[in-house]
């Protein structure tokens, strides 16, 4: 069996966020032992270092967007870096940075899969749907807009990043752990028919049933991309994020989500975003994120030959 090669790509920016500090996320993940955790799961790791880009000017919105030139620069740079790793046959693991970077990361994966004729399924693990637009939110923070941009609703520069037209189709997306959605954004999400598994559904039927539904009808040779916003976790485990929302998955629910994704054997790229060490306690949130990622790559609480029958 060919050993997986994961290429770590640091994107140290918080230009899309409403709080400073996510720019320190890549180093916090490295300090927490991400590379060692992946190696324990049989993954060869190549750390490509950090991408370079503009600083955060910390200005108010202009025409509905904060820091759009800077956001565009970071996403173009990330798009090229992720594309290069995919073309080289490596698994890109983007270390954010705020979630505006999902435009470049997911966009690169989507364009790559389209060219290769390979099915794509994106798992958006997040407390938020990130489906805002400049017309729906007064903040202008682009970290609340990446899914909308990927689906064709946003500034032309981001919507057409890497190619003409939207990078992502709603049917290729699964959102898990959602529990904070603006009122107008909620209506927009329903209009577009996004596949959302919110915390109420997890409460009602359990994480196992939710993941079975989200993984149903998964085509062979699907490229699974996981966009892991650390605020997916309940803040009791992950206080070091800029937008904490109470009532997230329990520790075991979150682990099960990762384990069931790992069981597919089809996870081929990953984002880890919104880790904010400035708001953390002794790097505990980074350590929690690393434990979740280790489960995503095959670590399990129980060694068994195969999963139980459903």
- Would you tell me the structural class of the helices and strands? alpha/beta
Give the overall silhouette: globular
Count of separate DSSP helical elements: 11
CATH architecture: 3-Layer(aba) Sandwich
Poorly predicted segments = none
Describe the biggest sheet? 8 strands, parallel
Into how many domains do the coordinates divide?
1
Question: Helix content range of the residues, please?
Answer: 25-40%
With strands numbered from the N-terminus, the spatial order across the biggest sheet is 2-1-3-8-7-4-5-6
CATH topology: Arginase, Chain A
| Rounded mean pLDDT score | 95
Taking Cα atoms only, what radius of gyration do you get, to the nearest Å? 18 Å
SSE pattern, N- to C-terminal:
EHHEHEHEHHEHEHHEHEH
The top-level CATH class is Alpha Beta
Task: Name the CATH superfamily classification.
Answer: Ureohydrolase domain
Family: Belongs to the arginase family.
Protein name: Arginase
Cofactor: Mn(2+)
Keywords: Arginine metabolism, Hydrolase, Manganese, Metal-binding
Walk me through what this model shows:
This protein is an alpha/beta fold and 310 residues long. The chain has one domain: Arginase, Chain A, CATH 3.40.800.10. The protein is built from eleven helices and eight strands. The chain has helices spanning 25-31, 34-40, 68-87, 102-116, 146-150, 156-159, 183-192, 199-205, 207-215, 251-263, 284-296; strands at 5-11, 44-50, 91-96, 120-125, 173-178, 195-198, 223-229, 267-273. It has an eight-stranded parallel beta sheet with strand order 2-1-3-8-7-4-5-6, with helices on both faces. Strand 7 (223-229), helix 10 and strand 8 (267-273) form a beta-alpha-beta unit. The radius of gyration is 18 Å and the shape is globular.
């Amino acid at each position: 069996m060919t050993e997986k090669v994961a290429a770590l790509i640091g994107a140290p920016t918080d230009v899309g966020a409403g709080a400073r500090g996510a720019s320190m996320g890549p180093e916090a993940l490295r300090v927490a032992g991400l590379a060692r955790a992946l190696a324990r799961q049989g993954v060869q790791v190549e750390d490509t270092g950090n991408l370079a880009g503009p600083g955060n000017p910390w200005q108010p919105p202009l025409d509905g967007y904060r820091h759009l030139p800077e956001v565009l620069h970071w996403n173009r740079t990330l798009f090229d870096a992720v594309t290069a790793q995919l073309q080289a046959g490596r698994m890109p693991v983007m270390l954010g940075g705020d979630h505006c970077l999902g435009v470049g990361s997911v966009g690169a994966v989507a364009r790559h899969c389209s060219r290769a004729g390979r099915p794509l399924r994106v798992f958006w693990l997040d407390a938020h749907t990130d489906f805002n637009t400049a017309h729906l939110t007064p903040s202008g923070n682009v970290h609340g807009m990446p899914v909308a941009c990927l689906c064709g609703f946003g500034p032309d520069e981001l919507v057409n990043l890497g190619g003409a037209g939207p990078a992502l189709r709603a049917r290729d997306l699964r959102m898990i752990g959602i529990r904070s959605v603006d009122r107008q954004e909620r209506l927009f999400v329903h209009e577009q028919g996004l596949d959302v598994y919110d915390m109420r559904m997890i409460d009602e039927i359990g994480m196992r049933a939710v993941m079975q539904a989200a993984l149903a009808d998964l085509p062979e040779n699907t490229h699974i991309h996981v966009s892991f916003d650390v605020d997916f976790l309940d803040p009791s485990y992950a206080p070091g994020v800029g937008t904490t929302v109470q009532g997230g998955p329990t520790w075991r629910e979150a682990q099960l989500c990762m384990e069931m994704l790992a069981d597919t054997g089809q996870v081929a790229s990953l984002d880890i975003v919104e880790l904010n060490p400035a708001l953390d306690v002794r790097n505990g949130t980074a350590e929690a994120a690393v434990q979740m990622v280790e489960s995503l790559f095959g670590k399990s609480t129980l060694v068994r030959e195969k999963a139980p029958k459903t």
